[in-house]
Amino acid sequence: MSIHIPNILLAIPRNPVTAVGLPLAIGFLSGSPPASKVANTHWYHALNAPPASPPREIFPFVWTLLYCAMGYASHVAVKALDKSALIPTRDDLSLGIALYYVQLGLNFVWSPLFFGTHNTGLALVDSVLLTATTWYMTKVLDRPTDGKATYFLLPYCAWLGYATYLNGGVWWLNGPGRKYHGKDDPKL
């Protein structure tokens, strides 16, 4: 099964700087407006959090490292694609790179869903899809990159599992299917 990746989507990760810069930029664009909403409202602070929830201050640091690692993994995958002559290996790498962009899109929409719309249930669906896509992408890229991409993606996979647990816990503990309606919610 051959997947065609547009040249622009291959050109970005060929350079390690743009490979790392793309997820950093997408993370910044996705997280900046929601971060200001969190700082200016009581919604997030009023949520019941599941056990083992970290302090919110660590999220920017963790995500910055994970964005750098995932970006570099995309660089490793494209470089392997450029060197590979075997069709099955090229097909796996093309699929892995396509999945990389899918997971990047899913990652981008999570913050607006969770923080922007306060829809923890839809954010949970996105998180489950993001986690499954990323684990599958990591599996697909493992052999054709001789485990190099996996080295950079495994911390991301582990964090996504943890983040999905946190999202699921928030959804469950705060009333599945309901949105928060606190004193600062404009819907009141």
TrEMBL record:
Keyword Transmembrane: yes
Keyword Kinase: no
Cell location: Membrane
Mode of membrane association: Multi-pass membrane protein
One GO CC term on file: mitochondrial outer membrane
InterPro entries attached to this UniProt entry: TspO/MBR-related_sf, TspO_MBR
Entry's Gene Ontology BP terms: tetrapyrrole metabolic process
Transmembrane segments: 61-81, 93-115, 150-173
Keywords: Membrane, Transmembrane, Transmembrane helix
Family label: Belongs to the TspO/BZRP family.
PANTHER family from the UniProt entry: PERIPHERAL-TYPE BENZODIAZEPINE RECEPTOR (PTHR10057), TRANSLOCATOR PROTEIN (PTHR10057:SF0)
Protein name as it appears in the record: TspO/MBR-related protein
